[in-house]
Specification:
This protein is of the alpha+beta class and 130 residues long. The protein has two helices and six strands, in the order H-E-E-E-E-E-E-H. The protein is elongated and about 70 Å long.
Length: 130
């Protein structure tokens, strides 16, 4: 076996190894994000279960079917004499910043990084979504 054949074989093996590493990296990031989200929902579940059941009724992981056949999932709905509260859980660090007069200008600030509008993350004022 000459040197060029060995180098060609090694470069092919290296390409396969890099592809496997890339797939594992992407898979682990997706799994970690789903796991982190589920942990956030479980934390909120733990808080909601402490509400007095005579005053508050909670529904978790509600799936709604829209007129066009698509579905929409809601993490938590709390029904009480004070109103109906729809809760979408996000398990992220930082602080949400916005005022009642801002429509799409609410953002998340990362207190650890001391950075506003992390990853360009702007969103609609939550009270207007419902």
């Amino acid at each position: 076996m000459n040197t060029s054949t060995v180098m060609h074989q090694m470069s092919g093996d290296l390409g396969i190894l890099l592809a496997i590493i890339f797939i594992l990296f992407v898979g682990l990031r997706l799994f970690a994000a789903k796991f982190k989200g589920k942990m956030g929902e479980l934390k909120v579940d733990g808080l909601l279960v402490k509400l007095p059941s005579t005053t508050y009724h909670t529904l978790d992981n509600v799936l709604l079917r829209k007129k066009d056949g698509r579905t929409s999932q809601i993490d938590h709905i709390v029904v009480s004499k004070f109103g109906v509260f729809v809760i979408e859980t996000k398990n992220r660090g930082g602080q949400i910043v916005g005022t009642e007069n801002q429509y799409k200008r609410w953002s998340r600030e990362d207190l650890i990084l001391n950075a506003a509008n992390v990853e360009g993350e702007e969103f609609i004022q939550p009270s207007l979504i419902c």
